[in-house]
Design a protein that fits this description.
Number of domains: 3
Bound molecules: 1,4-dihydronicotinamide adenine dinucleotide
Helix content: 40-55%
Mean pLDDT: 96
CATH class of the largest domain: Alpha Beta
CATH superfamily of the largest domain: NAD(P)-binding Rossmann-like Domain
Number of strands: 15
Strand content: 5-15%
CATH topology of the largest domain: Rossmann fold
């Protein structure tokens, strides 16, 4: 393992915008003298003053010793020419996201800095390989991808291009760790880890909205309250900005030669065309104007609890839900699985309550010759979730739906009934997140550990997608993707080879 940059080494930061200023603050707080440059007159000085104010505010809140805040601010020196980077051991550029402009900068920089200095880029979408090409020492160019706001978000993707020296990547990894960050290694491919593997979080929700399975507020509530995601996809897109989210999706899709896995949504394009960019314009999927009230999720009215609930057979999901019902005082009898009906499911007064496996409830009803079928969604933790999504088969009677709704309500869950789509929100999202993560591992973009870590620490997912797949059981995940692919007839749902393999043998993904 390479050593971190010594504290005595100078760090250069180029670009004093949102990211550059944050990175300068982190390096200064870690004890480095930081030289900050921006080609816009006065920008570096303004950024230095702003960082000093931020550090003073942290000290006022007791999060930092006042002397440390002052010392860190004093370590940031605005400079006015690239020649001032001659002493830097590491230079991180965070200028405009433009390949030609960044390449020009790196060319100018490489003749200024010492031969052993590392040149890092905070690019979020450009190829590290392309940025380094043509330089005298391409081996010292590496991605050091911070997330916004950099002082707050822990993840740093350390991205290696084809020419990046492994020692350089290791040194930047160690440096990020020494700065209190959570670094992961990635190879240079479109979207690196997070911006690639997170696409499904948005696209599955957009697909459900496109199909009018439910409204945005209901999908968001299910993702938060059953999926345990910090925010629902639509509220998150509104916060990020629909224009930015759309641009990232489009750039990843184009960079993967229009792979349907990453295909953007017409719905999102329409939002952008309308100027409904999210919070920043006062309107996105939701209205943020004065006096606007955020819509409530669709929630089933109270129903009577069923007189009899049975757990038929075994499955992780059905057992998890049965345990929740039992904990709430419902008597859940057990009976052997009836394979002709459905694998591991519950029965509430004759209604089959089947774990989501990528089939519609109607398809399951047809397959087992039983009209009263309701599918229930995946939950992060059935013991604690406040809400659960369900969908009923077309032929399911209102009384049959009420039996399962009553059982779930009796256990303290709000129930959101969606239209009978293939794959309910949490299950289809987790399946597709894991599918993408599995491909990233197969392609050598990152290790299973680093992919999971990146998704937890970069975008706050409650669990890494691969570990989540393992908790559900890879065979169930495989079946879900297989059913989604069959239902939609789209290449988008094709199985990652690793899931196909491990799903067949019962092996794990996160190992
Ligand atoms: P920004 O627009 O806030 O700041 C860019 C700064 O670079 C500006 O102050 C500009 O004057 C300066 N600049 C432009 N060309 C320059 C040059 N040739 N030499 C010196 N300074 C120059 O942009 P932001 O958001 O800070 O992004 C910077 C980089 O970080 C981009 O590569 C972006 O893709 C990446 N990034 C951005 C994230 C975000 O959420 N904003 C997250 C992660 C990475």
């Amino acid at each position: 393992m390479a050593d971190a940059l010594p504290r005595t080494a100078d760090v250069g930061v180029i670009g004093a915008g949102a990211m550059g200023a944050g990175i300068a603050q982190i390096a200064a707080q870690a004890g480095h003298r930081v030289r900050l440059f921006d080609n816009r007159m006065g920008a570096a000085d303004q950024a230095q003053a702003k960082i000093a104010t931020t550090l003073a505010a942290l000290a006022a809140k007791g999060k930092l010793a006042p002397a440390d805040a002052e010392a860190a601010a004093a370590r940031i020196v605005p400079v006015h020419a690239l020649g001032d980077f001659v002493s830097a051991g590491l230079v991180i550029e965070a200028i405009v996201e433009d390949l030609d402009v960044k390449r020009r900068l790196l060319r100018e920089l490489e003749v200024v800095v010492a031969p052993g200095a590392i040149l890092a880029t905070n690019t979020s979408s450009l190829s590290i390989t392309a940025l380094a090409a043509g330089l005298k020492r391409p081996g010292r160019v590496v991605g050091m991808h911070f997330f916004n706001p950099a002082p707050v978000l822990p993840l740093v993707e350390v991205v290696s291009g084809i020419a990046t020296d492994a020692q350089v990547a290791a040194a930047v990894h160690a440096t990020a760790a020494a700065w209190g960050k959570v670094p992961v290694h990635a190879t240079s491919t479109p979207g690196f880890i997070v911006n690639r593997c997170a696409r499904a979080f948005y696209s599955e929700a957009l697909g459900l909205l496109w199909e009018r399975a439910a409204d945005a507020a209901t999908i968001d509530a299910v993702m938060r309250e059953a999926g345990a995601f910090r925010m629902g996809p639509f509220e998150l897109m509104d916060m990020i900005g629909n224009d930015i989210n759309f641009a990232v999706t489009k750039s990843v899709w184009e960079a993967y030669f229009h792979d349907p896995r990453f295909r953007p949504s017409v719905l999102q394009q329409e939002r952008v065309a309308a100027g409904h960019l999210g919070r920043k314009t006062g309107r996105g999927y939701y209205d943020y104007g004065e006096g606007a009230v955020l819509p409530s999720p669709r929630t089933e009215p109270p129903a009577a609890r069923p007189s009899r609930v049975t757990l038929a057979g075994a499955s992780v999901l059905a057992e998890g839900l049965a345990a929740r019902l039992r904990a709430a005082g419902l008597h859940v009898a057990t009976s052997p699985a009836d394979a002709a009906l459905a694998p591991g499911h519950l029965v509430a007064d004759g209604t089959l309550l089947v774990p989501c496996d990528g089939r519609t409830a109607t398809a399951i009803a047809a397959a087992c010759g039983h009209p009263d079928v309701v599918v229930f969604d995946l939950a992060f933790d059935y013991a604690k979730c406040a809400r659960l999504a369900v969908a009923a088969a077309d032929g399911c009677s209102p009384a049959a739906v009420a039996a399962v709704v009553g059982a779930l309500q009796a256990a303290g869950m709000a129930v959101s009934r969606l239209d009978d789509v293939a794959g309910l929100p949490v299950m289809r999202t987790v399946a597709m997140l894991a599918n993408e993560a599995a491909d990233a591992v197969t392609q050598g973009i990152a290790s299973a550990r680093d992919v999971d870590l990146a998704m937890m620490r970069g975008v706050n997912y409650p669990r890494g997608p691969l570990a989540w797949a393992d908790a559900i059981g890879v065979p169930h995940l495989r079946a879900t993707l297989h059913h989604l692919a069959a239902h939609y007839g789209e290449d988008r749902y094709r199985l990652a080879p690793l899931i196909a393999r491990r799903g067949a043998t019962g092996g794990k993904l996160g190992e």
